[in-house]
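Standup notes, structure subgroup. Blocker cleared on the copper (II) ion input:
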Amino acid sequence: MSADRERGAAGDGGRRSAIRILLGGGAAAAVAGRVQPAWAAQADTAPWPRRGPSAAVASSSTGRVREFWIQADSFEHNAVPNGYDGMMGRRFSPDQTTFWAIGFRAYTPSWGRPLDADLGTDGIGTNAGIPGPVLRAEVGDTIRVHFRNNDEHYRWPHSIHPHGVQYDRDNDGGWLADDPRHPGTAIPFGGTYTYTWHCQGSSVGTWLYHDHSVPQAIPAPAGAASKGGTADTMGSAEAVMEIGAELGMLGILVVTDENTPPVDREFTLFLHDAYTDDVPSLAQDLDMFNGGAFLDNTPTFTARVGDRVRWRIAALGKEFHVFHIHGHRWESNQGYQGWVDSQILGPSTTLTVEYTEDNPGDWIYHCHVTDHMTGGMVGRYRVHP
Ligand SMILES: [Cu+2]
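Run returned:
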C-alpha cells in the first residue's frame, strides 16, 4: 500500500508541474510563491484526485489469490489446416502456412498436465497455445502466475508481461538491454519464475498479456543468406521486437467486478500477424484470429437469438485492425459513443463488445482492412433462431 501512496504522490506532483508549464513563465512564478492569485493557491491545495488508477479497490472484492501454472511450449503450427481461403478461393499447402510457434498453456499445479479446454463464459478457452489461456480474476484478487519456459525448439528466454493489473518492476516481464538480468524479464529455457499481479478497481475490463523478453531473429533456412542475429548475436538490427508474441505467446486477461453484466456467451478473440520477413517458413504474411487464418481455421462462434453476447477482443503486433460483424450493431463505449458495426483496435488495445442477439443467420466476422482479409482475418458467426 505504501508503494501505492508513493505512486499517487508522484503522480499528483507531476500533474501540478505540468500545469505550471502550461501556464507559462509569469504564472509559474506566481505559483512559485510571490503573488499567488486565488486560482494558483487552489491549484496547490485543491483536492486533486488523490486516487490514481492504482488506488481503487472495491469493498465487495473476494480478495482471492488466483493461481495459474503456465508453461511456454513450442510446437509446429499450421495456421490454415484446411488449406483453403474460403473468401477468395485460394488454396495453400501445409508447408506454406506452417511455422514453429510458441504458446502459453495452463497446467495443473507444478506444470503436471495441460488443463482441458473450457469455452464457457468463465473458462480458460481452448488452451491450445494460441492464444494462451484466458486469465480471469475479480477486483481485489491477486493473480499469481507460476511460469515455466519449455521452449524446446528455439530455446530463447521468455517472460510474461501483463496489461491492466497492478505490479512492480520485478513482476513486469519487460526486458531491457540496459538491465538485461532484471528478475522476471528473461526466464531461460527450462527456468521458472512466479509473477504476482494485483486487480484493482481500475483493472476491470479486457486486457492482454504477452512475451516481452529478449528480441530475437529466426535464422533463414539453410541455403538462404542469413538476415539476422539470434540470442547469441544480440544487437543485430534484424532482431525482432516481441518475436515471441508474433509466434503466439499472447493471451487475454479479464478482470470483472459486481457491475460486470452476466452473459450467455463470451467469445475471446486475439488478432495478431506473422510476417514472412520474420518467420521465413511462411509463404505469405498471415493475419490471424486466435492463431488461425481463413474461414473454418479461425474460430466459428455460435449464439442463439435472445442470448446476451460478449466479445473480448485484443490485438498485438504492428497493425491497426477494424473489427466488423455482419448483420450486427452494438453500442460503442469508447471513442465515438453510439451504435457501430465496426471498431478500430491497434497493438495492445482491446475491445469489449456486448449486445443481445436478435439476428439469426450464417454471418461472418472479419477485420475490415483488406490486406488483413487477404491474410486470413475472417471467421464464421452462426446465430440459431
Ligand atoms: Cu486487420
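Discussed briefly. The mean pLDDT is 85.
Next: hand off to the docking folks.
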